[in-house]
Design a protein that fits this description.
Length: 124
């Protein structure tokens, strides 16, 4: 069955960096749009970044130029490098598999097929 397992979250001071990872299994990873979305306490989910099967990437305006998504299809792993973190970036970050032709950051949530348990990122 499909499994997405995130790791690498933690606490960091404003201006710091974190790299979170997602190990995927149970499906043909390389064929899917993969992304990250986040949810802060009391707020709506927000699509953060997406990576298409063709290597294209997409970011929400709130993280563009600070975050970088990447994927290793040989390892079935998705990454999110987060730089210049701010307190407003604090949230539970979820790895997601989406079924969509257009793999943009805004396409992830409406086309969710699977997601992980989340990893907490706290910026103070």
């Amino acid at each position: 069955h499909v499994q997405l397992v995130e790791s690498g979250g933690g606490s960091v001071q404003a201006g710091g960096s974190l790299n979170i990872s997602c190990a995927a299994s149970g499906y043909t990873y390389s064929s899917y749009c993969m992304g990250w979305f986040r949810q802060a306490a009391g707020k709506e989910r927000e699509g953060v970044a997406a990576s298409g099967p063709d290597g294209t990437t997409s970011y929400a305006a709130s993280v563009k130029d600070r975050f970088a998504i990447s994927r290793d299809n040989a390892k079935n792993t998705l990454y999110l490098q987060m730089n210049s973190l701010q307190p407003e970036d604090s949230a539970l970050y979820y790895c997601a598999r989406a079924e969509t032709v257009t793999c943009g950051a805004a396409d992830v949530i409406p086309n969710l097929r699977s997601w992980g348990q989340g990893t907490q990122v706290t910026v103070s």
